Amino acid sequence: MTQSSSIPLSVVFALGLTMMLGPFAIDTYLPAFPLIAASLGVTIHEVSLSISIYMVGFALGQLTGGALSDRYGRRRVLATGLCIFAAASFFLASVESMNMLLLGRFLQSLGGGWTGVSIPALVRDRVHGVQAAKLFSMIGMVAIVAPAIAPAIGAALLELGTWGLVFVCLGSYALCLLPLLAATVFRGPHKPRQGADGVGVLGRYLGVLRTADARPYIFWQTASFGGLIIFVTYASFIYQGHFEQSRGAFTLLFACNIVAIFACNLLNRILLNWLPPARIMLGATCLQSCSGLLLLCAALLAWPVEAFLPVMMLYAGTLGAISPNIQASYLDNFPRSAASATAVMGAAQFGLGGVASALSNLLPETLVSVTACIAACAVISFACMLWSRRYSA
Protein backbone atom coordinates (compact mmCIF):
# COMPACT_ATOMS: atom_id res chain seq x y z
CA MET A 1 0.00 0.00 0.00
CA THR A 2 1.30 3.44 -0.95
CA GLN A 3 2.25 5.65 1.97
CA SER A 4 1.31 9.28 2.27
CA SER A 5 4.94 10.37 2.25
CA SER A 6 5.31 9.06 -1.29
CA ILE A 7 2.34 11.02 -2.64
CA PRO A 8 3.56 14.15 -4.46
CA LEU A 9 2.66 17.47 -2.86
CA SER A 10 1.21 18.52 -6.21
CA VAL A 11 -1.44 15.82 -5.81
CA VAL A 12 -2.16 16.87 -2.21
CA PHE A 13 -2.61 20.50 -3.26
CA ALA A 14 -4.72 19.57 -6.28
CA LEU A 15 -7.07 17.50 -4.12
CA GLY A 16 -7.14 20.26 -1.52
CA LEU A 17 -7.93 22.93 -4.11
CA THR A 18 -10.73 20.73 -5.42
CA MET A 19 -12.14 20.30 -1.92
CA MET A 20 -12.14 24.09 -1.61
CA LEU A 21 -14.92 24.24 -4.19
CA GLY A 22 -17.54 23.16 -1.63
CA PRO A 23 -16.70 25.81 0.99
CA PHE A 24 -16.40 28.43 -1.75
CA ALA A 25 -19.90 27.54 -2.97
CA ILE A 26 -21.32 28.00 0.53
CA ASP A 27 -19.31 30.87 2.00
CA THR A 28 -18.37 33.20 -0.87
CA TYR A 29 -21.88 34.61 -1.30
CA LEU A 30 -22.62 35.04 2.43
CA PRO A 31 -21.74 38.79 2.43
CA ALA A 32 -24.12 39.23 -0.52
CA PHE A 33 -27.20 37.97 1.37
CA PRO A 34 -28.60 41.47 2.01
CA LEU A 35 -28.06 42.44 -1.65
CA ILE A 36 -29.58 39.21 -2.98
CA ALA A 37 -32.59 39.66 -0.70
CA ALA A 38 -33.11 43.24 -1.89
CA SER A 39 -32.63 42.26 -5.55
CA LEU A 40 -35.12 39.37 -5.43
CA GLY A 41 -37.59 41.10 -3.12
CA VAL A 42 -37.28 38.60 -0.27
CA THR A 43 -35.85 38.55 3.27
CA ILE A 44 -32.36 37.47 4.31
CA HIS A 45 -34.06 34.67 6.22
CA GLU A 46 -35.50 33.36 2.94
CA VAL A 47 -32.16 33.66 1.13
CA SER A 48 -30.57 31.46 3.81
CA LEU A 49 -32.81 28.65 2.52
CA SER A 50 -30.49 28.45 -0.50
CA ILE A 51 -27.82 27.00 1.81
CA SER A 52 -30.20 24.27 2.96
CA ILE A 53 -31.10 23.50 -0.66
CA TYR A 54 -27.40 23.22 -1.49
CA MET A 55 -26.86 20.75 1.36
CA VAL A 56 -29.73 18.50 0.29
CA GLY A 57 -28.67 18.61 -3.38
CA PHE A 58 -25.07 17.92 -2.43
CA ALA A 59 -26.22 14.81 -0.57
CA LEU A 60 -28.18 13.58 -3.60
CA GLY A 61 -25.19 14.33 -5.82
CA GLN A 62 -22.96 12.23 -3.62
CA LEU A 63 -25.43 9.33 -3.62
CA THR A 64 -25.68 9.28 -7.40
CA GLY A 65 -21.99 9.94 -7.96
CA GLY A 66 -20.57 7.52 -5.40
CA ALA A 67 -21.57 4.23 -6.98
CA LEU A 68 -20.85 5.62 -10.47
CA SER A 69 -17.35 6.54 -9.33
CA ASP A 70 -16.71 3.00 -8.04
CA ARG A 71 -17.98 1.53 -11.28
CA TYR A 72 -16.77 3.91 -14.00
CA GLY A 73 -13.79 5.58 -12.34
CA ARG A 74 -12.99 8.72 -10.41
CA ARG A 75 -11.91 10.80 -13.41
CA ARG A 76 -15.20 10.66 -15.34
CA VAL A 77 -17.41 11.44 -12.34
CA LEU A 78 -15.12 14.19 -11.04
CA ALA A 79 -14.83 15.94 -14.42
CA THR A 80 -18.57 15.70 -15.09
CA GLY A 81 -19.35 17.10 -11.64
CA LEU A 82 -17.10 20.11 -12.23
CA CYS A 83 -18.79 20.84 -15.56
CA ILE A 84 -22.28 20.64 -14.02
CA PHE A 85 -21.18 22.91 -11.17
CA ALA A 86 -19.73 25.47 -13.59
CA ALA A 87 -22.83 25.54 -15.81
CA ALA A 88 -25.14 26.01 -12.83
CA SER A 89 -22.92 28.78 -11.44
CA PHE A 90 -23.13 30.76 -14.68
CA PHE A 91 -26.91 30.27 -14.63
CA LEU A 92 -27.09 31.63 -11.05
CA ALA A 93 -25.32 34.80 -12.11
CA SER A 94 -28.43 35.97 -13.96
CA VAL A 95 -31.42 34.68 -11.96
CA GLU A 96 -34.20 37.15 -11.21
CA SER A 97 -36.43 35.26 -8.77
CA MET A 98 -36.10 33.29 -5.57
CA ASN A 99 -37.35 30.12 -7.23
CA MET A 100 -34.67 30.36 -9.92
CA LEU A 101 -32.04 30.96 -7.24
CA LEU A 102 -33.08 27.80 -5.43
CA LEU A 103 -33.18 25.82 -8.69
CA GLY A 104 -29.70 27.01 -9.65
CA ARG A 105 -28.32 26.20 -6.22
CA PHE A 106 -29.81 22.72 -6.42
CA LEU A 107 -28.21 22.03 -9.81
CA GLN A 108 -24.93 23.51 -8.60
CA SER A 109 -24.99 21.25 -5.56
CA LEU A 110 -25.51 18.13 -7.67
CA GLY A 111 -22.29 18.89 -9.51
CA GLY A 112 -20.61 19.70 -6.23
CA GLY A 113 -21.72 16.34 -4.83
CA TRP A 114 -20.23 14.43 -7.77
CA THR A 115 -16.99 16.32 -7.23
CA GLY A 116 -16.91 16.02 -3.44
CA VAL A 117 -17.59 12.28 -3.32
CA SER A 118 -14.51 11.56 -5.43
CA ILE A 119 -11.90 13.17 -3.14
CA PRO A 120 -12.08 10.84 -0.11
CA ALA A 121 -12.32 7.88 -2.50
CA LEU A 122 -9.12 8.98 -4.24
CA VAL A 123 -7.42 9.16 -0.83
CA ARG A 124 -8.65 5.68 0.14
CA ASP A 125 -7.39 4.35 -3.21
CA ARG A 126 -3.88 5.34 -2.12
CA VAL A 127 -3.57 4.97 1.69
CA HIS A 128 -5.38 3.71 4.79
CA GLY A 129 -5.30 3.86 8.59
CA VAL A 130 -3.11 6.47 10.28
CA GLN A 131 -1.54 7.39 6.93
CA ALA A 132 -5.01 8.14 5.53
CA ALA A 133 -5.80 10.30 8.57
CA LYS A 134 -2.57 12.23 8.00
CA LEU A 135 -3.34 12.68 4.30
CA PHE A 136 -6.87 13.85 5.07
CA SER A 137 -5.34 16.39 7.46
CA MET A 138 -2.87 17.57 4.81
CA ILE A 139 -5.64 18.00 2.23
CA GLY A 140 -7.82 19.61 4.89
CA MET A 141 -5.14 22.19 5.71
CA VAL A 142 -5.17 23.24 2.06
CA ALA A 143 -8.95 23.15 1.75
CA ILE A 144 -9.56 25.02 5.01
CA VAL A 145 -8.19 28.15 3.38
CA ALA A 146 -11.41 28.41 1.37
CA PRO A 147 -13.92 29.19 4.13
CA ALA A 148 -11.38 31.54 5.71
CA ILE A 149 -10.98 33.69 2.61
CA ALA A 150 -14.32 33.05 0.88
CA PRO A 151 -16.34 35.81 2.61
CA ALA A 152 -13.49 38.27 2.01
CA ILE A 153 -13.39 37.30 -1.67
CA GLY A 154 -17.17 37.69 -1.86
CA ALA A 155 -17.01 41.11 -0.23
CA ALA A 156 -14.25 42.19 -2.63
CA LEU A 157 -16.24 41.00 -5.65
CA LEU A 158 -19.24 43.00 -4.44
CA GLU A 159 -17.06 46.11 -4.59
CA LEU A 160 -16.26 45.31 -8.24
CA GLY A 161 -19.71 44.37 -9.48
CA THR A 162 -23.09 42.86 -8.65
CA TRP A 163 -23.67 39.72 -6.61
CA GLY A 164 -23.89 37.76 -9.87
CA LEU A 165 -20.13 38.22 -10.27
CA VAL A 166 -19.64 35.89 -7.28
CA PHE A 167 -21.24 33.01 -9.16
CA VAL A 168 -19.35 33.79 -12.37
CA CYS A 169 -16.11 33.42 -10.42
CA LEU A 170 -17.28 30.17 -8.86
CA GLY A 171 -18.00 28.70 -12.29
CA SER A 172 -14.64 29.85 -13.62
CA TYR A 173 -12.85 28.30 -10.65
CA ALA A 174 -14.51 24.93 -11.30
CA LEU A 175 -13.40 24.98 -14.94
CA CYS A 176 -9.81 25.83 -13.94
CA LEU A 177 -9.69 22.69 -11.78
CA LEU A 178 -10.09 20.43 -14.83
CA PRO A 179 -6.60 20.97 -16.33
CA LEU A 180 -5.04 21.05 -12.85
CA LEU A 181 -6.41 17.61 -11.97
CA ALA A 182 -5.45 16.23 -15.38
CA ALA A 183 -1.85 17.36 -14.87
CA THR A 184 -1.50 16.03 -11.31
CA VAL A 185 -3.98 13.52 -9.88
CA PHE A 186 -4.82 11.83 -13.18
CA ARG A 187 -1.43 12.23 -14.81
CA GLY A 188 -0.31 9.28 -16.93
CA PRO A 189 -2.25 6.50 -18.68
CA HIS A 190 -5.80 5.97 -17.50
CA LYS A 191 -6.91 2.49 -16.54
CA PRO A 192 -10.65 1.89 -16.30
CA ARG A 193 -11.85 0.72 -12.90
CA GLN A 194 -13.76 -2.47 -12.49
CA GLY A 195 -16.88 -2.70 -10.39
CA ALA A 196 -16.13 -2.56 -6.70
CA ASP A 197 -17.70 -5.89 -5.82
CA GLY A 198 -19.75 -7.01 -8.79
CA VAL A 199 -23.07 -5.82 -7.39
CA GLY A 200 -25.39 -3.01 -8.41
CA VAL A 201 -25.72 0.49 -7.07
CA LEU A 202 -28.32 -0.39 -4.44
CA GLY A 203 -26.33 -3.44 -3.38
CA ARG A 204 -23.24 -1.34 -2.76
CA TYR A 205 -25.12 1.11 -0.57
CA LEU A 206 -26.88 -1.66 1.35
CA GLY A 207 -23.50 -3.29 1.91
CA VAL A 208 -22.23 -0.08 3.47
CA LEU A 209 -25.26 0.27 5.72
CA ARG A 210 -24.97 -3.37 6.84
CA THR A 211 -21.42 -2.80 8.10
CA ALA A 212 -22.10 -2.41 11.83
CA ASP A 213 -18.64 -1.06 12.71
CA ALA A 214 -19.07 1.81 10.24
CA ARG A 215 -22.55 3.01 11.20
CA PRO A 216 -21.59 5.04 14.29
CA TYR A 217 -19.07 7.03 12.26
CA ILE A 218 -21.77 8.10 9.78
CA PHE A 219 -23.94 9.70 12.43
CA TRP A 220 -20.97 10.93 14.46
CA GLN A 221 -19.68 12.91 11.49
CA THR A 222 -23.19 14.07 10.59
CA ALA A 223 -23.86 15.48 14.06
CA SER A 224 -20.42 17.08 14.41
CA PHE A 225 -20.73 18.74 11.02
CA GLY A 226 -24.39 19.61 11.46
CA GLY A 227 -23.69 22.17 14.16
CA LEU A 228 -21.23 23.96 11.92
CA ILE A 229 -23.72 24.00 9.04
CA ILE A 230 -26.31 25.64 11.28
CA PHE A 231 -23.73 28.22 12.31
CA VAL A 232 -22.79 28.94 8.68
CA THR A 233 -26.46 29.25 7.72
CA TYR A 234 -27.01 31.89 10.39
CA ALA A 235 -23.53 33.44 10.49
CA SER A 236 -24.74 36.59 8.75
CA PHE A 237 -27.65 36.91 11.21
CA ILE A 238 -25.45 36.20 14.25
CA TYR A 239 -22.72 38.71 13.51
CA GLN A 240 -24.40 41.28 11.26
CA GLY A 241 -27.88 41.02 12.75
CA HIS A 242 -27.69 40.08 16.42
CA PHE A 243 -24.26 41.56 17.24
CA GLU A 244 -24.69 44.43 14.73
CA GLN A 245 -21.25 44.09 13.13
CA SER A 246 -20.28 45.65 9.79
CA ARG A 247 -19.68 43.65 6.61
CA GLY A 248 -15.91 43.95 7.11
CA ALA A 249 -16.11 42.89 10.74
CA PHE A 250 -18.30 39.94 9.77
CA THR A 251 -15.60 38.75 7.38
CA LEU A 252 -12.97 38.84 10.13
CA LEU A 253 -15.20 37.22 12.75
CA PHE A 254 -16.16 34.43 10.36
CA ALA A 255 -12.51 33.86 9.45
CA CYS A 256 -11.59 33.39 13.13
CA ASN A 257 -13.58 30.16 13.19
CA ILE A 258 -11.75 28.88 10.14
CA VAL A 259 -8.40 29.72 11.69
CA ALA A 260 -9.43 27.59 14.67
CA ILE A 261 -10.26 24.64 12.40
CA PHE A 262 -6.91 25.04 10.63
CA ALA A 263 -5.01 25.10 13.94
CA CYS A 264 -6.76 21.97 15.23
CA ASN A 265 -6.20 20.26 11.88
CA LEU A 266 -2.47 20.96 12.14
CA LEU A 267 -2.42 19.83 15.78
CA ASN A 268 -4.24 16.64 14.78
CA ARG A 269 -1.56 15.80 12.22
CA ILE A 270 1.13 16.25 14.89
CA LEU A 271 -0.75 14.18 17.49
CA LEU A 272 -1.16 11.30 15.01
CA ASN A 273 2.57 10.64 15.40
CA TRP A 274 1.91 9.51 19.00
CA LEU A 275 -1.81 8.82 19.41
CA PRO A 276 -4.27 6.63 17.48
CA PRO A 277 -7.11 8.39 15.62
CA ALA A 278 -9.72 7.01 18.05
CA ARG A 279 -8.07 8.67 21.05
CA ILE A 280 -7.92 12.04 19.31
CA MET A 281 -11.55 11.81 18.19
CA LEU A 282 -12.67 11.08 21.73
CA GLY A 283 -10.96 14.12 23.23
CA ALA A 284 -12.05 16.46 20.44
CA THR A 285 -15.67 15.32 20.67
CA CYS A 286 -15.73 15.92 24.44
CA LEU A 287 -14.44 19.45 23.85
CA GLN A 288 -17.01 20.04 21.13
CA SER A 289 -19.85 18.93 23.40
CA CYS A 290 -18.73 21.27 26.18
CA SER A 291 -18.37 24.21 23.79
CA GLY A 292 -21.80 23.55 22.27
CA LEU A 293 -23.43 23.81 25.69
CA LEU A 294 -21.38 26.93 26.46
CA LEU A 295 -22.70 28.58 23.28
CA LEU A 296 -26.24 28.08 24.54
CA CYS A 297 -25.26 29.61 27.87
CA ALA A 298 -23.68 32.55 26.02
CA ALA A 299 -26.96 33.23 24.23
CA LEU A 300 -29.10 32.83 27.34
CA LEU A 301 -26.85 35.13 29.37
CA ALA A 302 -26.45 37.69 26.55
CA TRP A 303 -22.66 37.47 26.36
CA PRO A 304 -21.02 40.13 24.15
CA VAL A 305 -19.46 39.17 20.84
CA GLU A 306 -15.97 39.22 22.43
CA ALA A 307 -17.03 36.36 24.75
CA PHE A 308 -19.17 34.51 22.19
CA LEU A 309 -16.42 34.32 19.57
CA PRO A 310 -13.85 32.22 21.53
CA VAL A 311 -16.48 29.59 22.36
CA MET A 312 -17.64 29.46 18.75
CA MET A 313 -14.01 29.10 17.67
CA LEU A 314 -13.54 26.16 20.04
CA TYR A 315 -16.66 24.44 18.71
CA ALA A 316 -15.65 24.93 15.08
CA GLY A 317 -11.99 24.11 15.73
CA THR A 318 -12.69 20.64 17.08
CA LEU A 319 -13.93 19.63 13.63
CA GLY A 320 -10.33 19.91 12.45
CA ALA A 321 -9.47 16.99 14.72
CA ILE A 322 -12.73 15.04 14.40
CA SER A 323 -13.41 14.88 10.65
CA PRO A 324 -10.04 13.58 9.29
CA ASN A 325 -9.93 10.76 11.83
CA ILE A 326 -13.57 9.79 11.36
CA GLN A 327 -13.08 9.63 7.59
CA ALA A 328 -9.98 7.47 7.89
CA SER A 329 -11.48 5.11 10.48
CA TYR A 330 -14.73 4.81 8.55
CA LEU A 331 -13.17 4.15 5.13
CA ASP A 332 -10.90 1.45 6.55
CA ASN A 333 -14.00 -0.75 6.43
CA PHE A 334 -14.40 -0.33 2.65
CA PRO A 335 -11.17 -1.04 0.71
CA ARG A 336 -13.00 -1.76 -2.58
CA SER A 337 -16.00 0.58 -2.47
CA ALA A 338 -14.62 3.79 -1.00
CA ALA A 339 -16.73 6.12 -3.17
CA SER A 340 -19.98 4.33 -2.31
CA ALA A 341 -19.08 4.48 1.38
CA THR A 342 -18.19 8.17 1.05
CA ALA A 343 -21.52 8.79 -0.67
CA VAL A 344 -23.47 7.24 2.21
CA MET A 345 -21.63 9.35 4.76
CA GLY A 346 -21.87 12.45 2.60
CA ALA A 347 -25.58 11.95 1.98
CA ALA A 348 -26.20 11.64 5.70
CA GLN A 349 -23.87 14.51 6.57
CA PHE A 350 -25.16 17.03 4.05
CA GLY A 351 -28.70 15.69 3.67
CA LEU A 352 -29.53 15.58 7.36
CA GLY A 353 -27.49 18.75 7.91
CA GLY A 354 -29.47 20.50 5.20
CA VAL A 355 -32.78 19.25 6.55
CA ALA A 356 -31.84 20.37 10.08
CA SER A 357 -30.82 23.75 8.72
CA ALA A 358 -34.09 24.06 6.81
CA LEU A 359 -36.18 23.02 9.81
CA SER A 360 -34.36 25.57 11.94
CA ASN A 361 -36.03 28.21 9.75
CA LEU A 362 -39.28 27.29 11.52
CA LEU A 363 -37.82 28.48 14.83
CA PRO A 364 -37.73 32.13 15.91
CA GLU A 365 -34.72 33.92 14.39
CA THR A 366 -32.94 34.45 17.70
CA LEU A 367 -29.46 33.62 18.94
CA VAL A 368 -30.95 31.31 21.59
CA SER A 369 -32.71 29.23 18.92
CA VAL A 370 -29.56 28.95 16.78
CA THR A 371 -27.28 28.00 19.66
CA ALA A 372 -29.84 25.50 21.00
CA CYS A 373 -29.68 23.69 17.65
CA ILE A 374 -25.86 23.74 17.72
CA ALA A 375 -25.84 22.41 21.30
CA ALA A 376 -28.24 19.60 20.31
CA CYS A 377 -25.86 18.55 17.53
CA ALA A 378 -22.98 18.51 20.03
CA VAL A 379 -24.89 16.24 22.42
CA ILE A 380 -25.83 13.85 19.59
CA SER A 381 -22.18 13.76 18.48
CA PHE A 382 -21.14 12.77 22.00
CA ALA A 383 -23.76 10.00 22.04
CA CYS A 384 -22.47 8.65 18.71
CA MET A 385 -18.96 8.61 20.14
CA LEU A 386 -20.17 6.39 22.97
CA TRP A 387 -21.98 4.21 20.41
CA SER A 388 -18.78 3.70 18.42
CA ARG A 389 -16.87 2.60 21.52
CA ARG A 390 -19.18 -0.41 21.84
CA TYR A 391 -17.57 -1.83 18.69
CA SER A 392 -14.00 -0.91 19.62
CA ALA A 393 -14.17 -2.33 23.12
UniProtKB/TrEMBL annotation:
It comes from the Bacteria. It is a multi-pass membrane protein. Signal peptide: none annotated. It is found in: Cell inner membrane; Cell membrane. Keywords: Cell inner membrane, Cell membrane, Membrane, Transmembrane, Transmembrane helix, Transport. GO terms for biological process: xenobiotic detoxification by transmembrane export across the plasma membrane. PROSITE patterns: MFS, SUGAR_TRANSPORT_1. Pfam families: MFS_1. Residues 11-393 form the Major facilitator superfamily (MFS) profile domain. The chain crosses the membrane at residues 7-26, 32-56, 77-95, 101-123, 135-157, 163-186, 217-237, 249-268, 366-387. Its main location: membrane. One of its GO terms (molecular function) is xenobiotic transmembrane transporter activity. SUPFAM superfamilies: MFS general substrate transporter (SSF103473). GO terms for cellular component: plasma membrane. Belongs to the major facilitator superfamily. Bcr/CmlA family. This is Bcr/CflA family efflux transporter. It comes from Parahaliea mediterranea.
